[in-house]
Amino acid sequence: MPITADEPPAIEFRNVFCRAGGREVLTDLNLQIARGETLILLGRSGSGKTTTLKLVNRLLEPLSGEIRVNGVSNQLDIIRLRRGIGYVIQEIGLFPHFTVQRNIGLVPRIEAWPEERIRARVQEMLQLVGLAPDVASRYPHQLSGGQRQRVGVARALAADPAILLMDEPFGALDPLTRDELQREFLALQRTLHKTVVFVTHDLHEALRLGTRIALMESGKLITVAAPHDFLRSTDPLASAYVRAFGDGLESALNRSTDDRGTS
Length: 263
Hints:
By secondary structure, the chain is α/β, with parallel strands linked by helices. Helix content is 39%, strand content 24%. The chain has a 6-stranded mixed sheet with strand order 6-7-8-3-9-10, sandwiched between helices.
């Protein structure tokens, strides 16, 4: 998805360095993310994926460099910034003492939406993520892992943010549920066209879900490529990933094509 001169990137990192725990965790990151694309941050634990993600909505601050969101520095207004960004994590982060309705309606309520509009939006979001209307009255402990993760996605989308940050959202789920939610994610993205930054260490998932894959190692960006190009990359680290994951990579790409409804 190309970035044109008339339209700034949805997210841009310019010479970004970051330190945490007394060490440099991100080194000279330069990266542009186009509006409406799904950029996958791929890499091993400690490679800098989650750090990169958290810098976007200022859960972490850079040591130097600049991060721009929709052409504007993300340092200007943190409250406004975060209200325009949905965030989905592996642990889901639902409030256990809130019903599903209150969890999903959290940001719209902060934005002072009328209660009737919030209730309607909650039902719309439940339908969007494939949950029955009566789930609204339940509590998180009454749901399966897959249902809780769907609620987490619904909550992140409730206020219609332009950007969605997802930190290994399906990593703790069993393989069948994970496969189902990956298919549903692609269907949602085909409808909503959000700008998504998605962290994973699973190359199959990266190939299936990503518009592009950004491979990271030791706090550095190694390569950025479309899925087909990533599979055929001559970069040594990218090639090592392809060898390590072995069989099934082409089928992951083929499933992605089928689920996206493209030829």
